[in-house]
Structures are given as structure tokens and as C-alpha cells.
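User: Hey, my collaborator sent me this sequence without any context and asked if I could get a structure. I don't really work with proteins. Can you help?
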Amino acid sequence: MVDLRQPTIVAAALVFALIFSSAAHASLELARAKNCSACHHLERKMNGPAYKTIAERYAGNEGAAKVLAEKVRTGGAGVWGPSPMPAQPQVSPAEAEALVQWILSNK
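Assistant: No problem. I've predicted the 3D structure and written it out in C-alpha cell form, which is a compact way to encode the shape of the chain:
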């Protein structure tokens, strides 16, 4: 239990919680804003694979984030079945990286 008489500990715990909860929330909001939700869902397959399925497939693959961020922007086909991943050039490289980091954290 946190000792509420220690303001430094309480402040640090609150900052930690805000950083990690807002990062996850912000990435989900970014995925919605960039229309990723039209084809992807957190837990179930739609036109594209579920985010959790992507995270499971690439778990432990150190180079996956870079490859996937590029794939978000340029598109691809054949990795997850016959449906192609259309290019998303409106997603900046930084946004693609943030999206992929969030997707890969959903194990």
C-alpha cells in the first residue's frame, strides 16, 4: 500500500500511471483517427488481423517494428491471407512507428 503521507511517492505513482495509460489511450485514438479500425480490431479478425494476433506473431522479433511501420505506409499483401493491406501514405513515419509500438504491446 502507498503511504499517502509521502507526497513524492504519490506524485511519482500518479505520473507513472498517467504516462502509461495515456500512451495506450493515445495510440488507440491514433489508430481510430487514421482509420485503422476500418479493417482491424484489438481482439478479433476483420478484413485485417486483430492487433493482438499481430503482436503474438511478431513477439520477440526485434526488427518487426521497423518493418511493420514501413508496411503501414506502403501496404502489402499475402502475409495474412488474400486481402491486401492498402498503403496509408497519410500516416507519417512517426505516427506509423507509434501505432506499431502500440500494436506490438497488445500481447
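In plain terms: The domain at 7-104 is CATH 1.10.760.10 (Cytochrome Bc1 Complex; Chain D, domain 2). You can pass these C-alpha cells on to your collaborator as they are.
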